[in-house]
Design a protein that fits this description.
By secondary structure, the chain is of the alpha+beta class. Among the domains are: about 1-65 and about 530-645, Roll (PH-domain like), CATH 2.30.29.30; about 115-315, Serine Threonine Protein Phosphatase 5, Tetratricopeptide repeat, CATH 1.25.40.530; about 445-525. Strands 3-6-18-19-20-14-15-16-17 form a 9-stranded antiparallel beta sheet, covered by helices on one side. It has a 4-stranded antiparallel beta sheet with strand order 13-11-12-21. The two termini are about 45 Å apart.
Length: about 700
């Protein structure tokens, strides 16, 4: 890709010559900013085209060559239907309205596995680096060493515990603001260690410490670690010492030193602490810190952990969060502050006894309910789970000030629709419940007869031939069976009467047959097996608008191509993947380059969110069409992520679905069905600030 003065880019038109290599991505690492903002000239990922001759006559995707060699998991009964038998519920409390579970709600009080791992995760290369470190050689040139009583203090004297506040930063600072931040950090550290009186709670001091570090210059990260390092030396007060270890555990989960030598110095200190101490609580802390520093070096947090997460870190506990499935059930997954959504998916696959190789076909899906509509988004695999939870907490606090309710959940959802045998009941169940959610949420425009048939099939799937319980369920919550935007078309009694009448026609069907019939009924629908992303079409940048694409449109991705819808989800145009020459993304821009008569190139520009997820969808379907194996696909995605993982937004970019005015929001909140959700726990606020010289 070559940029030119017109803020456009040129495309290599010979990319299809070698069909074995035309999936290699080209990366432009040069960041071009105009007026401090991303522009199209910074479209920094251009993907070569789809092969033009890899589809069969029916435009169906090729099966994967290695799927036949994988263990086949064929069951008469789907695990997704029987999660209660598979998962041991470890909760004392109802998790309906919780995201991070508060301490004390979980029966399992065991420490994080990281408390015993320690050096076992260290590569030989890293070990050799930090073993060579000498504290005096590292610190003497950079410390802000001053004379005391006409003699110069040694490194050892400076780096020892003190109860009083610092008069100067430990490191040589160039700016006054960095000096003020450094002194404020030490006050927060002393307060957390209870060496300094404060009316604030300890977690508030830790949170403020991390926020100040992340808002400061890179040298502040070095200052932060050295301050805690100092307070761990020659500290004779047991409570103060242990709280210093807890504090180091907290910051190790949030950031690492900017100076590589200081990073290695801290690892060296931890290594020898493990060798020399018999104090088991300290050993647990050292192991935990060691693992988290190494992991944070790979995945540094973008956001400060929320109050609840910091509590778990403080007690060296894994963080339990509920992951929901579209059948209304949930699993509790333990995560760490460094856990990415890719790693979270692998854990879920293990619980479901699914092949972890197929985790690349799934995504974690965020659903947010509020009074203005339903917001939904796929979450990028490279995002850190804790960072998203922090965004949730921020949104909830804002809604709380407005006295409004906002609800969040994580779901497991198919991102890529791949081929499988109809005897694979797990895959059928996943797709069925996912589609059922979309139907009941009102995303499909359906006729009355279709709604009635689908509702009857849903009842049979739940109750089989038990008409008595089927009728009771339908009467108590008919909204679980009728799309929310259609409930007003008939009275409740009319809906119940007609659904039950049809129910008798299917009551002898086995459950899996009902699911298959449900899916077959929707196969011809324009929104079936399609993922939607709100976008704005850029008339000025695009080469043309021959297809009359409206400015406010929706990008739809399905296995064989891209559908453009208008804002009412009416189909405007369809582009087969095999007609796409190239595509590109930046932080907010998605570009497709179409071929016309194999000569002219059409460039269409869309501003949209979740461009990383869009890129993954495009790349995966390209691999499927080209017949790539699962291992090849995984390698392609991993290599792409290494080069292109900086577009992850620190804000929630979601597609919004407006709820019908007559669809009662309070019912959805109180309903325990798949389309209800939960709120983040609101804990007491201990934000009274008595710190002096606070930096705002």
């Amino acid at each position: 890709m070559n940029e030119n003065n017109d803020d456009e880019f040129e495309i290599n038109t010979d990319l299809n010559k070698d069909k074995n290599t035309n999936f290699k991505s080209t990366i432009n690492d040069d960041k071009i900013f105009l007026n401090g903002e991303y522009t199209l000239s910074n479209t920094n990922y251009i993907q070569s085209s789809f092969p033009l001759n890899q589809t069969n006559g029916n435009n169906e995707i090729n099966d994967f060559s290695d799927l036949n060699n994988m263990p086949i998991r064929i069951r008469e009964k789907s695990i997704i239907d029987n999660l209660n038998e598979k998962i041991e519920n470890k909760l004392n409390a109802n998790i309906q309205y919780m995201s991070i579970l508060t301490l004390g709600t979980v029966k399992d009080n065991s420490l994080s596995k990281d408390c015993d791992l320690g050096l076992s995760i260290v590569s030989s290369g890293l070990l050799s680096q930090f073993m060579k470190i000498d504290a005096n050689m590292v610190l003497f040139p950079i410390l802000n060493i001053r004379k005391s009583c006409f003699r110069q203090l040694s490194v050892e004297q400076i780096m020892t515990w003190q109860k009083s506040e610092l008069k100067d930063p430990l490191l040589k600072m160039e700016s006054e603001i960095d000096k003020e931040i450094s002194l404020q950090l030490f006050r927060n550290l002393l307060s957390y260690m209870k060496d300094r009186y404060s009316r604030k709670g300890p977690i508030s001091h830790a949170s403020k410490f991390v926020k100040l570090v992340k808002s400061g210059n890179p040298i502040i990260k070095d200052e932060a670690y050295l301050q805690v390092y100092k307070q761990l030396h020659n500290n004779k007060k047991r409570e103060s010492l242990m709280r210093a270890w807890k504090f180091l555990a907290i910051i190790s989960c949030c950031f690492i030193p900017n100076n590589e030598n200081i990073y290695h110095l801290i690892l060296n200190f931890l290594f020898f602490e493990l060798q020399n101490t018999n104090d088991q609580p300290i050993k647990k802390h050292v192991n935990y810190i060691f693992v988290h520093m190494v992991q944070t070096e790979k995945h540094e947090r973008k956001n400060t952990p929320c109050y609840e997460e910091l509590q778990y870190i403080e007690y060296l506990r894994p963080i339990p969060i509920p992951i929901y499935f579209f059948n209304g059930k949930q699993a509790i997954i333990n995560i760490e502050p460094y856990t990415t959504f890719r790693e979270l998916k692998t854990e879920i696959m293990n619980i479901l006894d699914f092949s972890t190789q197929r985790a690349i076909f799934y995504s974690i899906y965020e659903i947010c309910y509020n009074k203005t509509g339903t917001e939904e988004r796929f979450i990028d695999d490279n995002e850190i789970v804790g960072d998203v939870l922090t965004l949730w907490k921020s949104d909830i606090e804002k809604s709380k000030l407005k006295k409004e309710l906002i609800i969040f959940r994580f779901y497991l959802k198919l991102l890529i629709y791949y081929q499988y045998d109809e005897t694979n009941v797990d895959n059928i169940s996943i797709l069925y419940y996912q589609t059922l959610y979309d139907v009941i949420s009102g995303k499909y425009q359906l006729s009355e007869s279709q709604i009635l048939t689908l509702a009857a099939l849903e009842l049979v799937n739940e109750f089989e031939s038990d008409i008595e319980n089927a009728y009771i369920s339908l009467k108590e919550s008919y909204e679980n069976y009728v799309p929310g935007n259609c409930t007003s078309l008939m009275t409740k009694d009319q809906w119940i009467e007609k659904i039950i009448e049809l129910y008798s026609n299917f009551s002898s069907f086995p459950k899996n047959n009902c699911k298959m019939e449900y899916l077959k009924l929707l196969e011809a629908h324009s929104l079936f097996k399609i993922h939607q992303f709100e976008s704005k079409f850029d008339y000025e940048k695009s080469s043309d608008n021959d297809d009359l694409i409206p400015e406010n449109c929706i990008l739809g991705f399905q296995p064989d191509g891209i559908v453009i819808f208008d804002s009412k989800r009416e189909k405007v145009v369809f582009y087969e993947y095999v007609t796409i020459k190239n595509w590109g993304i930046s932080d907010k821009v998605f570009v497709i380059i179409l071929t016309l008569d194999n000569i002219k190139l059409r460039k269409l520009y869309f501003y949209t969110g979740q461009t990383n997820v869009i890129q993954t969808i495009m790349e995966m379907y390209a691999c499927i069409i080209a017949g790539k194996s699962l291992n090849e696909m995984k390698t392609i995605i991993e290599e792409r992520d290494k080069k292109f993982n900086k577009n992850i937004s620190t804000k929630r970019n979601a597609t919004k679905f407006t709820r019908d005015a007559e669809y009662d929001f309070s019912y959805k909140i109180n309903n325990l069905s798949a389309r209800s959700s939960f709120v983040f726990p609101i804990l007491p606020n201990d934000s009274n600030d008595d710190d002096k010289n606070t930096i705002n």
